[in-house]
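Re: the 95-residue chain
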Amino acid sequence: MEELKEKLSSGTLTFGILGLVFCGSGILGLIFSIIGLSKAKKYAAEAGELTGKAKTGKILATLGLVFSIIAIVCWIIVAIVGSCASAALQQYAVQ
Protein backbone atom coordinates (compact mmCIF):
# COMPACT_ATOMS: atom_id res chain seq x y z
CA MET A 1 0.00 0.00 0.00
CA GLU A 2 2.84 2.41 0.82
CA GLU A 3 4.48 1.60 -2.49
CA LEU A 4 1.29 2.44 -4.38
CA LYS A 5 0.93 5.72 -2.49
CA GLU A 6 4.54 6.62 -3.27
CA LYS A 7 4.05 5.87 -6.99
CA LEU A 8 0.85 7.92 -7.10
CA SER A 9 2.40 10.87 -5.27
CA SER A 10 5.48 10.82 -7.53
CA GLY A 11 3.28 10.52 -10.62
CA THR A 12 1.10 13.38 -9.46
CA LEU A 13 4.12 15.61 -8.96
CA THR A 14 5.72 14.57 -12.25
CA PHE A 15 2.62 15.18 -14.33
CA GLY A 16 1.89 18.40 -12.45
CA ILE A 17 5.34 19.71 -13.38
CA LEU A 18 4.96 18.55 -16.99
CA GLY A 19 1.54 20.19 -17.21
CA LEU A 20 2.97 23.47 -16.03
CA VAL A 21 6.05 23.25 -18.27
CA PHE A 22 4.02 22.49 -21.41
CA CYS A 23 1.08 24.80 -20.68
CA GLY A 24 2.21 27.23 -23.39
CA SER A 25 1.65 24.59 -26.05
CA GLY A 26 -1.94 24.20 -24.95
CA ILE A 27 -2.86 20.61 -25.72
CA LEU A 28 0.19 18.91 -24.17
CA GLY A 29 -0.16 20.94 -20.99
CA LEU A 30 -3.85 20.12 -20.85
CA ILE A 31 -3.20 16.39 -21.23
CA PHE A 32 -0.41 16.26 -18.63
CA SER A 33 -2.43 18.36 -16.17
CA ILE A 34 -5.48 16.13 -16.48
CA ILE A 35 -3.33 13.04 -15.88
CA GLY A 36 -1.77 14.73 -12.83
CA LEU A 37 -5.19 15.61 -11.40
CA SER A 38 -6.38 12.07 -12.03
CA LYS A 39 -3.42 10.65 -10.12
CA ALA A 40 -4.06 13.12 -7.28
CA LYS A 41 -7.66 11.91 -7.10
CA LYS A 42 -6.50 8.29 -6.91
CA TYR A 43 -3.98 9.20 -4.20
CA ALA A 44 -6.68 10.96 -2.17
CA ALA A 45 -8.96 7.93 -2.49
CA GLU A 46 -6.15 5.65 -1.33
CA ALA A 47 -4.63 7.78 1.45
CA GLY A 48 -7.65 9.80 2.55
CA GLU A 49 -6.03 13.20 2.01
CA LEU A 50 -3.34 14.81 -0.11
CA THR A 51 0.02 15.33 1.54
CA GLY A 52 3.54 16.19 0.47
CA LYS A 53 4.40 15.55 -3.16
CA ALA A 54 0.81 14.67 -4.06
CA LYS A 55 -0.51 17.99 -2.75
CA THR A 56 2.21 19.93 -4.56
CA GLY A 57 1.56 17.95 -7.74
CA LYS A 58 -2.15 18.71 -7.59
CA ILE A 59 -1.47 22.43 -7.19
CA LEU A 60 0.95 22.39 -10.14
CA ALA A 61 -1.47 20.34 -12.26
CA THR A 62 -4.28 22.78 -11.48
CA LEU A 63 -2.10 25.74 -12.47
CA GLY A 64 -1.05 23.90 -15.63
CA LEU A 65 -4.68 23.21 -16.49
CA VAL A 66 -5.71 26.84 -16.05
CA PHE A 67 -2.73 28.17 -18.02
CA SER A 68 -3.27 25.57 -20.76
CA ILE A 69 -6.88 26.63 -21.18
CA ILE A 70 -5.80 30.27 -21.34
CA ALA A 71 -3.14 29.36 -23.94
CA ILE A 72 -5.67 27.47 -26.07
CA VAL A 73 -8.08 30.43 -25.97
CA CYS A 74 -5.24 32.79 -26.93
CA TRP A 75 -4.19 30.53 -29.83
CA ILE A 76 -7.79 30.50 -31.09
CA ILE A 77 -8.02 34.31 -30.86
CA VAL A 78 -4.70 34.72 -32.69
CA ALA A 79 -5.87 32.34 -35.44
CA ILE A 80 -9.15 34.23 -35.88
CA VAL A 81 -7.51 37.65 -35.90
CA GLY A 82 -4.80 36.45 -38.27
CA SER A 83 -7.38 35.01 -40.62
CA CYS A 84 -9.40 38.23 -40.61
CA ALA A 85 -6.30 40.36 -41.13
CA SER A 86 -5.17 38.17 -44.01
CA ALA A 87 -8.58 38.46 -45.68
CA ALA A 88 -8.58 42.23 -45.23
CA LEU A 89 -5.08 42.57 -46.69
CA GLN A 90 -6.02 40.45 -49.70
CA GLN A 91 -9.09 42.61 -50.30
CA TYR A 92 -7.00 45.78 -50.36
CA ALA A 93 -4.27 44.17 -52.48
CA VAL A 94 -6.77 43.30 -55.22
CA GLN A 95 -8.01 46.88 -55.55
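The longest helix spans residues 52-94.
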